[in-house]
Design goal:
The complex is a heterodimer of chains A (404) and B (178). Chain A contains 17 helices and seven strands. With 404 residues, chain A is an alpha+beta fold. In chain A, the strands form two sheets. In chain A, strands 1-2-3 form a three-stranded antiparallel β-sheet. In chain A, strands 5-6-7 form a three-stranded antiparallel β-sheet. In chain A, strand 2 and strand 3 (43-50) form a beta hairpin. With 178 residues, chain B is an alpha/beta fold. Chain B has helices spanning 15-25, 49-58, 121-132, and strands at 2-5, 31-34, 40-44, 66-74, 83-91, 96-104, 110-112, 135-137. Chain B has a five-stranded mixed β-sheet with strand order 2-3-6-5-4. A two-stranded parallel sheet of chain B has the order 7-8. In chain B, a hairpin with a 4-residue loop joins strand 5 (83-91) and strand 6 (96-104). The chains are: A alpha+beta (404), B alpha/beta (178). Chains A and B meet through helix 1, helix 8, strand 4, helix 11 and strand 5 of A and strand 1, strand 4 and helix 3 of B.
């Protein structure tokens, strides 16, 4: 398929290729990272990726922070779906503490995490559209990310870096507005998403641009430790929600969409299908929630979960626990925990070593983005520059998650 | 596009069996078997890491072919074994995870690279080098990845405290820190 244009010897000091900097501030990188491409005309013959432009030393910072203060750090990793990071971290701490949360909290968390997954996939897929020259899909879907953010806002007060929930549950119960907006979302989004799919899935131009662009085989994807939609697009049905269920995911009816070729088109289809699955999970969770006592939104664990403010002012015990939690004086057991959740980009893992002190002795984030981005040079080898651009956006590279 | 329906996968491969296979293949080498929070964990001597990884990868029963995570930990109070390198492996067929550790002294932190077994180990090892200074012998491109190239220390080591120690306006003792 590719003609050899370069006539020079392998080790020649002269060169016929052009070096092209894609990033760190190029619009198509959608984040701060750099690709130094060696181009033979319009064909990519080599790529070197440079990351670290927004490294913020979260692992080091975490070693000086009490557990509950680490939640806002996790926000800033994959900021397109921060609630998954927040809840993943809270689940890790709960696993270390041996804290069990009520079923209703599990279902509330499933709702929030699946909303976050939708908002992440929605951005990724519509941006693939933008980068291939189809802008309108982006505008249709973006309205619904706004609705998702309004739901977050009702629960935690913020939109992008959410810091949602607490160790042991949520900071407040879902109010009527949340349920109303969830209903509105579940009613309207399927129509919008099918319209989006009608615009793209069988669109000749879009198919020509994405089919065969940036493919990876299942074997290579596994060898590169791919996870999430990018691995599933290559045909491997690995999903942490199914293999190591957390938050009662084992009770849910969940289908894993898989692709075949691992190219940009399959990644796009897998993400679209996952949005449908997420909506179904939210519906199931809402149904399950109806059977649970509606006033429960956190575990009954006064030593770990902050008491309501009125109690802190009036009750001695609540005041003591409040002080202890805020000062990070909770008694954490000594131990090593690895806990993984299915983030929007793949397996988001937290490796936590506790020496019984007020802060983690060591905390390591397994960031799916960082791990699969190293395959980029292989994905775009011999591809056209325009394919490399599509490939970047369809991998869903989030600079915050690359760098941590 | 196809879909598969799943129920949680049963564990066919037990921890006891993995332990037995490892002890049979590497007598007196693999040690400290533990199961913290349900994950099988063990330690290997640092020069044996690649042999054990390869065995775990190639053995038709074990099949630990997915490298989930690779990182390091600094224990300044353990003379001669200050640095630990931690591998998290996953057998996706039987759905079993395990954790493999090795310890090395900080003066010659030489550990064989796993790049030839796992392409994904490349950046994970670069990150580990960048923050802890582990020298992965045989790594094709062992240079800093997240920190600036000019940095001349390894910032995740415990001797580099996070906060400016010269500050006098904070009385740490009042806050349970020391």
């Amino acid at each position: 398929m590719t003609e050899q244009h370069i006539k020079l010897q392998q080790d020649s000091l002269q060169k016929e290729t052009t070096t092209l900097n894609l990033g760190p501030t190029h619009p198509v990188t959608h984040g701060v990272f750099q690709n130094i491409l060696e181009m033979d005309g319009e064909r990519v013959v080599g790529a070197t990726s440079t990351v670290g432009y927004i490294h913020r030393a979260f692992e080091k910072l975490a070693e000086r922070r009490p557990f509950y203060q680490i939640t806002p750090l996790t926000d800033r990793m994959n900021y397109c779906s921060s609630p998954i990071n927040n809840i993943g971290w809270q689940l890790t701490v709960e696993k270390l503490l041996g804290l069990r949360v009520p079923k209703r909290v599990d279902y509330m968390r499933v709702i929030i995490m699946e909303l976050a997954r939708i908002s992440d996939h929605l951005i990724c897929n519509s941006v693939v559209g933008v980068d291939s020259g189809a802008y309108s899909g982006f505008l249709y879907l973006m309205q619904y990310r706004e609705l998702i953010y309004e739901i977050y806002e009702e629960i935690c007060g913020s939109r992008l870096t959410t810091n949602i929930g607490r160790i042991g549950g949520f900071e407040r119960n879902f109010n009527d507005t949340v349920f109303r907006k969830l209903d509105k979302f579940l009613k309207e989004y399927p129509g919008v998403l099918s319209e989006f799919e009608r615009l793209f899935n069988r669109n000749r131009i879009f198919m020509d641009r994405t089919i065969g662009a940036g493919p990876i085989s299942a074997e290579r994807a596994l060898n590169y430790s791919f996870t999430g939609p990018n691995l599933r697009a290559a045909g491997v049905d690995y999903d942490v929600r199914v293999t190591q269920p957390y938050c009662s995911y084992e009770e849910f009816d969940l289908k894993i969409p898989v692709g075949k070729t691992g190219d940009c088109y399959d990644r796009f289809l897998v993400r679209n299908q996952e949005m449908w699955e997420s909506m179904s999970l939210i519906r199931q969770a809402l149904q399950k929630m109806e059977k649970e006592p509606s006033e429960v939104f956190h575990a009954d664990a006064p030593a770990y979960y902050l008491a309501p403010k009125p109690d802190v002012y009036t009750k001695m015990e609540a005041l003591i626990y409040h002080f202890k939690i805020i000062m990070g004086e909770i008694d954490a057991p000594v131990g090593e925990v690895y806990h993984a959740v299915e983030g929007a980009n793949g397996e988001l893992g937290f490796y936590l070593i506790s020496d019984g002190g007020r802060t983690p002795y060591r905390l390591h984030f397994r960031r799916p983005c960082f791990i699969y981005y190293q395959a980029f040079p292989e994905l775009v080898h011999n591809a056209l520059l325009s394919d490399a651009v599509i490939c970047l956006s369809s991998l869903n590279l989030i600079a915050g998650e690359l760098d941590a | 596009m196809t879909e598969t329906i799943h129920s949680p996968v049963e564990m066919a491969l037990t921890h006891a069996h993995i332990e037995e296979r490892l002890k049979e293949k590497f007598p007196d080498v693999v040690s400290e078997f533990e199961e913290p929070y349900g994950m099988l964990s063990f330690t290997v001597p640092r020069e044996m890491n690649l042999k054990v990884l390869q065995f775990l990868y190639e053995d038709p029963e074990l099949q630990f072919r997915f490298l989930t995570d690779l990182t390091a930990v600094h224990y300044p109070d353990k003379p001669g074994a200050e640095l630990a390198v931690v591998y998290h492996l996953h057998n996706l067929v039987d759905n079993v995870r395990l954790r493999m550790k090795l310890f090395t002294d900080i003066r010659t932190p030489d550990v064989f690279t796993a790049c030839r077994l796992f392409a994904g180990a490349n950046w994970m090892e670069r990150e580990t080098y960048d923050f802890f200074g582990i020298n992965f012998v045989g790594h094709p491109n062992l240079k800093r990845i997240l920190n600036v190239d000019e940095m001349d220390y390894f910032p995740m080591l415990k001797q580099y405290p996070l906060e400016d120690q010269s500050r006098k306006d904070k009385d740490d003792q009042m806050f349970g820190r020391n």
